[in-house]
Every structure is written in C-alpha cells, then in structure tokens.
Amino acid sequence: MIAEKMKSLVKGSSAIRAMFEEGKRMAALYGAQNVYDFSLGNPNVAAPKAVNEAICQILKEEDPVEVHGYMNNSGYEDVREAIAASLNRRFGTSFTGDAIVMTVGAAGGLNVMFKTLLNPGEEVLVFAPFFGEYRSYVDNYEGVLKVVPPQTETFQPNLKAFGEMITEKTKAVIINTPNNPTGVIYSEDTIKEMARILEEKESQFGSSIYLISDEPYRELAYDGAQVPYLTKYYHNTVVGYSYSKSLSLPGERIGYLVLPDELDDAEEVRGAANVATRILGFVNAPSLMQRAVARCLDEQVDLEFYDRNRKALCEGLKKCGFSFIWPQGAFYLFLKSPVEDEKEFCEKGKEYHILMVPGSSFACPGYVRLAYCVSYETIQGAMPGFEKLAQDYGLKSNGAGRTDEN
Amino acid sequence: MIAEKMKSLVKGSSAIRAMFEEGKRMAALYGAQNVYDFSLGNPNVAAPKAVNEAICQILKEEDPVEVHGYMNNSGYEDVREAIAASLNRRFGTSFTGDAIVMTVGAAGGLNVMFKTLLNPGEEVLVFAPFFGEYRSYVDNYEGVLKVVPPQTETFQPNLKAFGEMITEKTKAVIINTPNNPTGVIYSEDTIKEMARILEEKESQFGSSIYLISDEPYRELAYDGAQVPYLTKYYHNTVVGYSYSKSLSLPGERIGYLVLPDELDDAEEVRGAANVATRILGFVNAPSLMQRAVARCLDEQVDLEFYDRNRKALCEGLKKCGFSFIWPQGAFYLFLKSPVEDEKEFCEKGKEYHILMVPGSSFACPGYVRLAYCVSYETIQGAMPGFEKLAQDYGLKSNGAGRTDEN
Question: What is the DSSP letter of A263?
Fold first, then answer.
C-alpha cells in the first residue's frame, strides 16, 4: 500500500542493495581480504583529530541548552558568518552570513533548493555522467531531469548539446566538480563558456536559470589542481557543500548552501530556502555538528591517503592497458569498458573478486566506476585480477588507450 | 523566481517570524526579564549530563570512521536493536531492530512516512487542534489534509466526526499525544474506540489506513499519567518519535519511526521508508547522535522542572479566573480566550508584555497556546499581567471555569 511512485524507486534500490549484498556474500565466501570492492563511495579515512577534540571542547565550554537547541532554521548566525568569512578568505568572494544556509549534508541542501525553486514540469539539466540520486531529488518536486549527453573524450561537459537543450522551461542546471563518477575537474574555460551560454539564454528567454554546483568533493583535488569557485563566473549560482568528504563526516549530515547576493530574487530565495528546510522536516542542520565544523574550517582529511591510492590504481590500470581519464579530484576513476556492454565487464570482474559499478547507473554506458576510497592493500590485491581481466579482453599491456593521456 | 507553492508558505512563515521579532523588540524595549514570552515551544532544560558524557566516550572508544560514517539508510543495526529492546521492556511490545528506522527528528520521520505512503490526492485526517506544520508535511507529497473539528469539552479527539470523515481516499491519520497545543493525553478509551472505527472503515473500504502517532512528548507526562502505546491497539500503527524533548536535543535532529510487523505490507513499507530517507536528502539520521541516544535509553530530562512550571502556571491562571483543561503532558497549556476573537486577546496580552499564540494557528480559534518551557521566573513575573488581563475581561477571580475542573 505504499505510494505508486515509490514502487519503482524501491525496485531500483534493490539493485544497489543486491550489489552490496554480493560484496558481503563474496567476503564470506573468499575472505574479506580477497574481495576488491570498488563499488562504494564511502570515505574510509578518519576525520581529522581536531573534529573530535572540537566536539568535546564545545560540550565543555558552551551552553548545553544552546549547543543542542533549536536555532534559526538556516543555522547558527555565528557559524554562518564564520563559514562566509572562510570562503571569502579562500576564494576572494564577499559573502555575508546571510548567504549561508546550513543543511543536512549536500543531499539535504539540493532537496531544499529544488523545493525552493521548482514548479511542476520545470526542467533541470544535468551533464552525463552524473550521480544518479539527482534524478530523485528533482522528481521529488515534480521537476523534469534532462540529461546532457556525455563528451567522452575529456568528460568535460558537452556545452554544445547543453546550449541546444536549454528552453524557456529550464529552471536549473546541476554541475558536480570534481565529478562523481569521472574524477574530472571542470576547467575554468568550461565554466566561462557555460556561464556565457547561461547568460545568453536567460536574456533570450527572459528567465532565471539557477546553476546549482554540488561540491562535496571540492577539497579532494590532487597535484594542486584548482577548482574554480562558481559564484565568481555566473550571477545565478548556488553552491551546495558538504563536510562528508572534506572532514570525513558523511554520517553526520552536515553541509551548507551558498545563496549569494547576486542571485535573482536573492532575498526571496533565501527566505524560501529557510522555510523549505523547516517544512521538509530537516528543521535545521544538526546543531552540535554546526558548531564543530565552524571550529574546523581550516582542517582537512589526509588527502595523501587518497592520492596514494589514486596513483597506484591509475598506474596499475594503465600498465594493464585500460583506458581512462586520469582523475584530478574526488576518489573515483571512470574506466572505459573493453566491451560495449559494461555490465558484462562488471560480471567478468566478479570472477576475480573485483566489484565495479556499471556506467549505466551514471547515464554513461560503456564505462565503469571504481571508487578508490578503499585500503591501499585492496588496490594492490586487485591488480593481478585486473591484469587477468585485461588479458581476457585482449588489451595490450602498457598500451596507451584513447583516453589515458592526461 | 521561487516556486509558486513556496510563496504562500514564505508569507505564512513571515507571520511566525514577526511574532518572534516582536518578542525581541519588546525585550530590547522593556528588558528581557520584563517580557513573558510563552510563544516558543523550545525546550529550555539542558540535556542530561549522561548524553554529553556518552558523546565523548563514543569518540574515545569507537572506530572514528564508523562513528561519523555512512551506515544503512535506516540506521546502525545495533542502535535499532537497542531501541527495539528498550521499547519491548517498557511497553511489552515485541519489535525487532528491523521495525526501527532512525530519522532526522520526528519531523523528518513524518516526511519519510508521507513520502512512503501518499499518492497525490489521498487524504490524511488530523484532529484539531494540531501542530500546523502537519499541513506542509502532507502537502509536500500532494496529500490532502482533512481537519476533524475539535471537541472542546475535553480536547479528546472528536471520534464521531472522525468516523464520518473517513472515506475510501483516507490513507493516514495523524495523532499527537501528549498533545501540542492542549497538553491533553488521549485516553485508552479514546484509543480503543479510534482503533475500532479504523478497523471498521478498513474493512468497509477494503483499504489500509495508517495511524501515524507523532510522539515527541511521550516522556513528558505528569502525575504518573500513562500514555497508551498505540501499536498495541491497532495493527496499522506507525510511531514517530523524537529525542528533542525527552533528552532536550531538538537541534540534533534525532528520532525514529517504528514500523511494526503487523503493518499491512510491512516489508514493503520498511523498504520504501529506507529509500525515502535517502532520496529526500536525509540519507540517514546523524550518526554520532544515533550512537549517543543508544547509550542513553534510560535517561530523561528533568521533568520536575516543567512540572513546577505547569503547576505554577495552572494555579495562577485558575486563580485569575481563566478557563482551561489542566495539561497532563507536554509543556503547553491551551487557554480559553475570554473573547471570541482570540487574536484580540493576544494583542491585549502584549500590553502586559505577555506573548501567546492564537489558537487559529492550530485550527482552533477561541483559544490561545501558552508554552511553559520557560524559566520559573517568567511564570511568576507574568502573573500580575495575567491578573490584569483577567480583570480587563471581567473574569471572576478564582471562579471555576467551564473547562478547568480536571
């Protein structure tokens, strides 16, 4: 007797669960150390010690009623001001605390934004490949998700197709950089061109098109790569941030939205985001965690851990002859499947106890996602299996693939 | 450019904010100690010390990746089992951990349930007076809220009207006991008769009607009053619980749903609630707080504090000649306005620096809500003002009102 809409969602969810169960089944059968599960995007690096210290300090120093209490639905004012000031220092922006709405993670923030913005039937564009949950977030508010096809040479967004797909019904665009599942960082040139197109279309249709930048992986950028701060390029930009990865606090559900002064109807959007936070049942971002992250704005997880994995995995896979874009950020690698049907490749991988997610789940068949937020030993242990996989598909060892050159 | 639906919600929200701002304005003008703000339902008693101790212990003892990490969207299995066992001990139920879904507070839990259950146009019944946010929670999923008129003699639910209002479109019923705004606990007789009606209507229409019991005030029951555990009376009962009041953790957003085996399609409902938790952007209830409440299942805030306020307020108001039902639970008192237009009464109260919420906000005009989760001094300080108010309306001092006898 559940809602009709939920039935297919439950079915889709069973597929994810099935994969998870498969991992557990294989671990029981072959021993956990002999199963190489690259299917889960769960941070496996501990939060910086400063976070736990901050939590205990807060409980000692601050008023207990206030620490665990209600506040403005948008969050504690001092926390919002501290975050704005930190962003201003880092990115040369000029946000005030009013621009910040504390959220129950980035997923909570995106839901708040779509509740705030979307009328039924309005369109939200997203670039393939993309995190599949966006589909539900948009559907929750009867929006229509439109998928811009991928540009597989570089996995930068396909801006030609993008420009052609914007209509008078386009209310928002989601971007995600560093990207899940590709690990690619959208370049400044890409961002500038995207902003140009959006401005042109806003003026053509007399509409407001909100660019919603989902940034849980912002701090996971390797080799000093810069991740452009989007609000500086396009006026109608909303940033959704999470501490899930930057401070390894995914279970704590703590993040924020940035709603800059430059937004069309900024005051109205902020007011509505405040109300949406309340009525969707979030009410506010968890209070103690708000206060904890405000004390840890300069902290970050050990990036070196992920980077070591990244290098080991990339070098190993390259040696086997696999093709992929060398990831610049996040903790994902998007491998070109040696056969067109990447699900067959995933099945074959299981023979060597390697678990990967088909690209179809990210609207990009022909590829598979490897999440390298695993132990270093998992990567090392998986390599003989990858070598055999490469041999099975006749890949030329150490051969330079089409897309492995950067 | 916000969504049409949000516009009226933002307007409604401005009224609440205006009241809040009025309190701040008056405090600045007359001094905070001379303003008697009974408008806010914010717990003002600190969480038991054991909660903060548990948090720091967990951070010391448990695996940091797990403590702050993702888990099953329904919550940590050990936490869910501990909660089920605690409920079984207290209420003679026989829940397993599978029946528990950890939620972002009770508000999060209600949203998860309505997402899980409601098809557009399906009806949800609620008994006036009721917490106004229910209207939004139901509307979020295009449900239609139907308000059962109040029964002002006792503020027990009006079951005659209830029975007549159930149709083949009725998917759920919300009840809230101890009640916000009346402080009334629904009696076992009430519950039994309600269950009888629901079973009769389910059989008449061949439908499933879910009784959703919103229980954030369960532990705030005075004079040893018993709050019947609803799942024992009606098979299709879902309990929504929160630690906001019982442990004074409203800002932490931690609670749970109980989805018993006896529910129609129990497995499907649980699966859908799990998915709804994820796609609405909650993802999971805050992880550290899940683990903390599991260590504090036998803890409770200092009930004596609220009870002292309750007695002082009730005795003082009775002496003035006001009419009301003596509250048995929660921290609200629902006063009969001495004039039909209770908004006029609220305005008049401001002359004596007393802030109250009109009953219209709870679909019950002619009454006002006083939240006595304030300092004892606030209650003492307000009494001269209440005396003058009573005189202004010609109430007979110490007179027994129509509804003040229990």
Answer: S
Sheet with A332-336, strands from edge to edge, namely A332-336, A367-371, A357-358
What number of residues does chain A have?
406
For residue A57, the model assigns a pLDDT of 98
Same domain, B278 and B375: no
Cβ contact A111–B3 (<8 Å): no
Q: How confident is the model at residue A16 (pLDDT cuts 50, 70, 90)?
A: confident
Mutation site, B68, B124, B137, B247, interface A, largest A CB count within 10 A: B68
User: Of B114, B101, B96, B110, whose CA–CA distance to B258 is shortest?
Assistant: B101
- Cβ pairs A/B, distance under 8 A: 239
Cα radius of gyration (chain B): 21
Between strands B144-148 and B123-127, the pairing is parallel
Question: B107 and B213: one domain?
Answer: yes
Quick check: B82 pLDDT over 50? yes
Count CA within 13 A, CB hemisphere, residue B238.
Answer: 30
Residue A355 belongs to domain with CATH number = 3.90.1150.10
Query: Is the distance from CB of B186 to CB of B179 less than 8 angstroms?
Result: yes
Instruction: Calculate ∠ Cα A101-B181-B352, nearest 5°.
Output: 85
For the segment B239-267, the average pLDDT, to the nearest whole number, is 97
| Distance of alpha carbon B212 from alpha carbon B230, whole angstroms | 9
Among B277, B294, B311, identify where a domain stops: B294
Tell me if A54 is assigned to some domain.
Answer: yes
How big is chain A by its Cα radius of gyration, in Å?
21
Backbone angles phi and psi of B108, in degrees to 5: -65, -45
Whether residue B65 sits in one domain with residue B30: no
Q: Mean pLDDT throughout B171-177?
A: 98
Mean pLDDT on A131-149: 97
What pLDDT band is residue A385 in, cutting at 50, 70 and 90?
very high
Q: Which residue of A has its CA nearest to B56?
A: A56
| CB-nearest partner of B59 from A6, A55, A281 | A55
Q: Dihedral sign for Cα B132, B133, B138, B139, please.
A: positive
| CB spacing of B286 vs A286 below 8 angstroms | yes
Flag whether pLDDT at A3 surpasses 70: yes
Q: Is the pLDDT confidence value at B108 over 60?
A: yes
- SS3 call for A322: coil
C-alpha distances in Å from residue B371, one per residue of A111, A196, B31, B40: 32, 53, 20, 6
Provide the pLDDT confidence category of residue A403 given band limits of 50, 70 and 90: very low
In whole angstroms, what is the distance from residue A154 CA to residue A189 CA? 13
Look up residue B207 and give its two tokens. 């439908």
* Residue B398 confidence class, pLDDT cut points 50, 70, 90: low
Task: Please tell me whether residue B36 adopts helix, strand or coil conformation.
Answer: strand
Residue B54: φ, ψ to 5°: -60, -40
β-pair partners for B147: B126
Q: Which residues of A touch B101 (CB under 8 A)?
A: none
Span A166-185, pLDDT tens digits: 999 999 999 999 999 999 99
Q: Which domain holds residue A220?
A: 49-294
Query: How far apart are alpha carbons B324 and B359 in whole angstroms?
Result: 13
The confidence score (pLDDT) of residue A18 equals 82
